[in-house]
User: Fold these one by one.
Assistant:
Number 1:
Amino acid sequence: MTEALVLLTQILTITLRAGTSLIYAAVGEIYTERSGILNLGLEGMMLTGAVTAFATAFYTGSTWLGVLVAMVMGMIMASIHAFLTVTMRANQVVSGLSITLFGTGLASFLGERLGPASNNGNLVGMVGPRFSAIEIPVLSQIPVVGALFKQDILTYLLYALVPLAVYYLYKTRNGLNLRAVGESPQTADAMGINVTKTRYLYTILGGMLAGFGGAHLSLAYAPGWTENITGGRGWIAIALVIFAMWNPARAILGAILFGGINAVQFRLQAGGTTIPAAYLNMLPYLMTILVLVIMTWWENLSHRIGAPAALGKAYMREEK
């Protein structure tokens, strides 16, 4: 391969790796919001997922056990959010922000002894097991496209997760029921759909996928634990849901955008650019915000924003 193709392949490889955690969290949030529940607690769930995944893997030697524990943590925090918003009918924005604040503090506390420690003036982090990249023979050697086949196992799982998520949402009765609850819980209830059960189920599923995304960060993308390892990815994932118009397939495009800008800024820093590193670190977030603003403006202009009609609205059967 020519030098340009090698560079493009490397950027695409990093792009996919950087976007993996975002896709997991965004797909989970899409399912949650499709049920009518807004979950602003993704950042806290991803942080607790990341710290518990790394801690579990470090002390047990099992990366898969770490992923499982991260998903359980996401499930527990999402269950709290579901109880507050579905059963207690608390304000969904306030509940989500509380989950993020709680998760951030809890992750900081749990990770206090796991982060980088000083060794003769140098910061040295704990080293544990990780998901290494697995290159698929022949396919990984294809120019540019070969980047798809130089990923870790958690990224490979996305190749199946996203198509299954789209199929389930649009081609199955359960998916139809989910969308019905998000559009009109009163109508769904009259049709015999258990609105409370549906909202609990998909809020918890969203939390589990957020925890999974956090596990990818600490066990594959940047193995180890550092304070605020997510770097705001939970908030970016929420923005991607709007960017994707609540469609799991479109979430991939947003994640690639974020991951691609992230990869480019890393390459620029490695190449010794004169642009200050702080400005380069801002690029992925600035581009995501810019694209989100443009997309929202365009969709509002064309009246096709696609948000579930009952999103953020509490429902009790007695109120029909």
Number 2:
Amino acid sequence: MPIRRATEADLPTIIDLIHGLAEYEREPDAVRLDPETFRLHLFGPRPFAETLIAETPAGQSAGFALFFHNYSTWEGRPGIYLEDLFVRPELRGQGHGKALLAALARIAVERDCARLEWAVLDWNEPSIQFYRSLGARPMDEWTTYRLTGEALATLAGP
């Protein structure tokens, strides 16, 4: 399966795939990204995230993986956090998801990362089974917390 790093020219495709992911995750109206800000965050002078694109042999975009580095203080090494992995529904079961994860695993190994992590919605049984088939294991003892909006602004203070 062809996997390549995204370029700035891929921005409309990445945004389209993000909307596809939001639809799959039952939140089609949740995407609020500003395309110009998003472009700067992916391809500007200080990128915050990186993206891989999966393509069909005919060159059609099949899916994407958006990721960034985190850090393990216990390991004393960086890790990679996979924020989003999505394969178009009509192209699932053809190896694109596994190819994206394998490419990301190679990047993690090349960069001497201690781990590759991601979250999955607890109702997404097909993905959970897929991840388990690759040897991934759930981190059931951890609960993710998030601050957004007013709560984030309040904590940040004046």
Number 3:
Amino acid sequence: MKSKKKVVKKEKEKKKSTKILRRYMDVAGVKSETSRIAKIIFNVCIFLNLVFSGYLIWFFIQHKGYPILYIIGLTLMIWTLAFLALVFFVWLFFFVFMDFKIFHRRKSIEEALPDFLHFTATNIRAGMTVEKAMWFAVRPRFGVLAKEIETVAKEVMSGSDLGVSLERFATKYNSNVLKRSVNLIVEGMDAGGEIGNLLTKIATHIEEVRLMKKEMAANVTTYVIFITFAAIIATPALLALSSQLLGVIGEIFSSIDIPSGTQMMFSIKESAVTPENFRTFSVLVLFITSLFSAMIISVIKKGNVVEGIKYIPTYIIVSLLIYFAASSLLGSMMSGIF
């Protein structure tokens, strides 16, 4: 009995996770089956594990002398712990990718919503019902919103209530703009008010809020310039200068010849930080600094990190290029002095 209960419980959990994944994929606009996605991810993990195992086999062939038990244990560890880690990170990458798709779909809906509401209001004033006004307001350029309104229209034609279908559509995407707009429309229909004027006011309010956000982003341009200068110009230049000074100081101390038996108030030892270690440290610092600087700028300009994710690779690449260019330039200048 206990084993049957466990099997039933596992089946329920599997069905629940499948429903969650299906809902997640629907919001992201992915039409593939969940079983196919799971199979692809599993095959990718197997392939990566085989590649890594092949590399280890090649490494052990090139470097003989490893005990056979060590090789077997390492291989087993790869096909257990490493495989589980691969599955986790591949699924994590998949869900992050889905989050980006959901974000862009939500942004597309919010951008097209004011124009759609204006068209709907015009159709209502022309004498159409709300359902027909929404249907005839759909334009191909509305993209995701057009497809979602078509889905709502089909549900209404099949007998579903318009308010229920609109609320289901609003809760599908985590958008405050969409939820508030739909709630106002549903309340207006229930109250029997003038829907055309209400839709016009909602669309105008959305456009005003969007314009206000752009003005706020323009007002903080000074902060963006300061953070950008500090992250991709000042920090790489200072780290390049420190790296060259570290090498110069090391050469000076190595050229000092102290006679034996001479007593000094301080001792001269080799530096604990080598230029190679400092270069690795500089690259790591630039990577972290550029990453967080791009995220801060994204929050300042766009209001969230996801919308400005495109800044991150640009900041990292530019800061590293400036660092290596400044290191090369300062190295050639100091070589002629010392």
Number 4:
Amino acid sequence: MPDKSFLILDDDEAVGETIQFIAESLGYRAKFVTHARDFFASLDEMFPDIITIDLVMPELDGVEVMRLLGERNCCSRIIISSGMGTRVLDAAQRAAAQHKLNILGVISKPVSREAMRILVGESCDLKLPQVIPEKLSGQHNGQSISKADLQQALDRHEFVVAYQPKIHCGTGAPAGFEALARWEHPQRGTIMPIYFIPLAEEYGLIDVLTAQVFDQSLAWFSRYFAQSGLYLSLNVSARSLVAMCGQYAINPDRIVLELTESSAMVDPILSLDLMTRLRVKGFQLSIDDFGTGFSSMVQFVRLPFSEIKVDKSFVMRSQESAEARAVIKSIIDLGHSLGLVVTGEGVENSASLDYLNSLGCDLAQGFFIALPMTGAAAIAWVNEKYLLPS
């Protein structure tokens, strides 16, 4: 029996059977249900790798189902399906992202095997690390991550760093790396930052966590790339904007501190003060996930960013969504008009990279370019891709 499972929620039996047949032909153990109550019962039994959800349902609609999945910290990869227009599908995908769900993509009805194969096949090829949420893992008796859990992980130095490469769109040459925190739990395996960063902030442990991530990544970068001309991007909380390069022989202008749009705008006055001080010291500042928040353009222009990152939700949909393409072009034009470097995230195929390059986007990152990797693998990647001067 296949070890991969696929759960389908669709009130149209013919459509459900079709998707089930396609999933089984792709090597999945598949099941389809027509009612939300059966869906959630099957969810607890199967722990499916992939879920397909129809938006239009007679009881709970697909958006409400996704909200409930978000409350359960569901880690399955989700495909949204509907016969409605692309704007509705795009809006549903954004709603799902707000619930911190792992959206694999959207697919229009009638569902074709080729379209499903592209979504599901690429998902299999990526071999993404499995995130095991508290509610489903059973490792902590169904309890949420506590302050003591995080403190113990910090004391034991269980947080490690993965490095995702960034390249120049035009040439494909490496531009640097983004450092990404991972929690290597001794029982539950790899836990992704979406599960522990908000709690670290809530519990007052974000500064200690940030210090550990910075220490690891700066020591690695200082040893191997301090004089290479590459950049190291670090994701930081707005509460943790502190200078930590003093003990390392790294020029501050090689370090890019990344803030999300929402965190940067929580207190624009405080952010302006802290960011200006960091820019004076020579650090680069990047606004991450741009386009997903609702910040004032006046506030954004006032803050001294040096880089703007196009959120991956737009880049990943650039080939099928005119709305996404319009947003990408607007952000690139805005960034260049302000003298900022523009980076496109979420590049998962050559077409997306070509589109970013056609618009003059400066840098790109995503699974098509490279997955996050260990420090040793990142060094090998640069040696293979980057022609260092002899």
